[in-house]
Amino acid sequence: MIGGLFIYNHKGEILISRIYRDDIARNAVDAFRVNVIHARSQIRSPVTNIARTSFFHLKKANIWITAVTRQNVNAAMVFEMLHKTLALMTSYFGKVSEEAIKSNFVLIYELLDEILDFGYPQKTDSGILKTFITQQGIKTTSAEEQTKITNQVTGQIGWRREGIKYRRNELFLDVLENVNLLMNAQGKVLSAHVSGRVVMRSYLSGMPECKFGMNDKIITDNKDKDTSATADVATKKKNAGIAIDDCTFHQCVKLSKFETERSISFIPPDGEFELMRYRTTKDISFPFRIIPLVREIGKTKMEIKVVLKSNYRPALLGQKIEVKIPTPVTTAGVNLMCNKGRSKYKSSENAVVWRIKRMAGLKEAQLTAEIELLPSTENRKWQRPPISMNFEVPYAPSGLKVRYLKVFEPKLNYSDHETVKWVRYIGRSGLYETRS
What we know:
Layout: E1 4-9, E2 14-19, H1 28-37, E3 47-50, E4 53-60, E5 63-69, H2 75-93, H3 98-103, H4 105-115, E6 116-117, E7 120-121, H5 126-132, H6 143-154, E8 170-183, E9 189-203, E10 209-214, H7 217-226, H8 233-238, E11 246-249, H9 255-261, E12 264-266, E13 271-280, E14 288-297, E15 301-310, E16 317-326, E17 331-338, E18 342-346, E19 351-360, E20 364-373, E21 387-393, E22 402-408, E23 420-434
Parallel strand pairs: 8-23
Antiparallel strand pairs: 1-2, 1-5, 3-4, 4-5, 6-7, 8-9, 9-13, 10-12, 10-22, 11-13, 14-15, 15-20, 16-19, 16-21, 17-20, 18-19, 21-23
């Protein structure tokens, strides 16, 4: 059973004090404040014993809620009751803070009289209590929430301040994509998807409105309907859009315009921000193809050949290419030969690591690894983990293209043509694996 329940603010001032049993004196309030709240060293334990009195306490934000007893009580039951008390207060008046407790102290005393009777927990279910304690709690709003409400009512834009000025108006847009692939040894795609981000850096004066358009399939399909039936097939293929499975936007994007016009219209925050995230699973252009060939020569020798093909345009250069080829645990030595880049056997990782600095499109590279194995008494066959790969290529593997990027600022009267715009595409490997 609980002798009393106190609620303090961060200064140690008592906000709520309810004593249920005669064995708890008023000076218990000061004992907890001096020994716990104002303690010089940090109190780690949620249970503190002072002069044969046990204090069970929780801290939520800047509020301390404490149950006091001189009996040998079930600690788990006491903490469950304290959590239920906080949940009840949240149910009645929202966020538990010093201001909210001061505004609702009458309601809190009424709740404490119902949930504890002579120190024994009774009703703690908010649904039951609300049937006979029908008083509505006074919900307080923080300064941030009040600002947000004011911004919503007045139409003020919270993510961008007014009066921003730059000598040169610039807009940088990066399309960053991660390609995830699982392919079998025969070249069949088992699973694949691209997760992408559109990241912008905005250095624009005033309160400009930007419009960003991409080759979304819905837009391009609508345009194809308007073109003649005898249109060139190659032109249609070139203008084909990507099918985005799902996407999320920054709060600055006007979603109503995207749903009706499929154009992304927004007033950008100043500096760097993430405009959107998206995911696509169809018509992915895989930058590299790995063709593995594993040949076991008896029980103590193995040969692994790996052919790496680049599938992008010859004018493009792939960079930071790394292929990791797993080897058996019983590997004693490895002899490596490659016609491009550098290769090294790492015994700590049980893998051959093949690095190529740069590789042009539609090229081919080959690595051969002759592996000597230690004799083993185990007949268990090597499972052949997949060959993984890391890379970076200067295009979007999903096929996403920026169709237009426009800037309008009617107040400062600088035009779209005066704004310097940069667009960059970077495709990177996510989990890019080929089974051997």
